[in-house]
């Protein structure tokens, strides 16, 4: 088991409010880890710290063995340069609740943009790679459509293709189905499920308990900025130990 993501004693504050209170987490290569918990428990903030979209105040995040976001200089913790952070951020792919596609671009151009601008890939090679991933998520036939011409589920699948095409070490999903109509949820979950079956390393923040149980290698339950319980889904869902998780599961649909 090779650790890809290592989080150690992670703390994050917004002003006086401490939203992450010493998180320790390991995600191994090829693992699917689902993070569950009530609103406000710190799930999304943790994910955004992994992607360096949020600064964190104490602790360490390592991806692929590299400490990200900060450096030690003369015994002081200092933020890495923006150039370093941009390179480190490329180690993760992020899919958000909102699709964040460029509305004036086709599905194809949304996927190729990062490949040509960030990776410096020739246009022809970028198009070939984008077509591969658009086909993989079932969107190749709509490659020339703009976001307004696509359903929410289709836009989210394009967003997944865009993130994966950048060849990240780990994929991060932040409530990827929460903005979708119920009939569109299944198509996005099936896309994520098929990628998981191929061994892609993933960390998912989700409220889809049945999906988390079925697809995850490990489930992490967060409560009030801490990890209250974690373990294999069969164990965590069938015999939860903490009273908070027991109460949470009673209100969740399995």
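^ structure tokens above, recovered residues below v
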């Amino acid at each position: 088991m090779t650790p890809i993501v290592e989080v150690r004693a992670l703390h994050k504050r917004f002003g006086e409010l401490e939203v992450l209170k010493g998180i320790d987490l390991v995600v191994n290569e090829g693992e699917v880890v689902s993070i569950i918990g009530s609103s406000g428990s710190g799930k999304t903030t943790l994910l955004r710290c992994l992607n360096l979209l949020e600064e964190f105040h104490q602790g360490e995040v390592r991806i692929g063995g590299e400490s990200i976001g900060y450096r030690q200089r003369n015994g002081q913790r200092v933020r890495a340069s923006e150039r370093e952070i941009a390179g480190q951020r490329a180690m993760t792919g992020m899919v958000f609740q909102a699709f964040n596609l460029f509305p004036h671009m086709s599905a194809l151009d949304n996927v190729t943009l990062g490949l040509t601008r960030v990776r410096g890939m020739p246009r022809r090679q970028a198009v070939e790679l984008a077509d591969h991933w658009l086909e993989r998520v079932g969107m190749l036939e709509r490659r020339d459509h703009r976001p307004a011409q696509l359903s929410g589920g289709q836009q989210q699948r394009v967003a997944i293709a865009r993130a994966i095409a950048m060849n990240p070490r780990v994929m991060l999903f932040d409530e990827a189905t929460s903005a979708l109509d119920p009939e569109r949820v299944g198509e996005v979950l099936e896309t994520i499920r098929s990628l998981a079956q191929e061994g892609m390393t993933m960390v998912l923040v989700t409220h889809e308990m049945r999906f988390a149980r079925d697809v995850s290698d490990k489930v992490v339950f967060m409560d009030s900025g801490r990890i209250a319980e974690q373990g294999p889904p069969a164990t965590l869902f069938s015999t939860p130990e903490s009273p908070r998780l027991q109460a949470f599961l009673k209100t969740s649909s399995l």
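The first strand starts at residue 3 and ends at 14.
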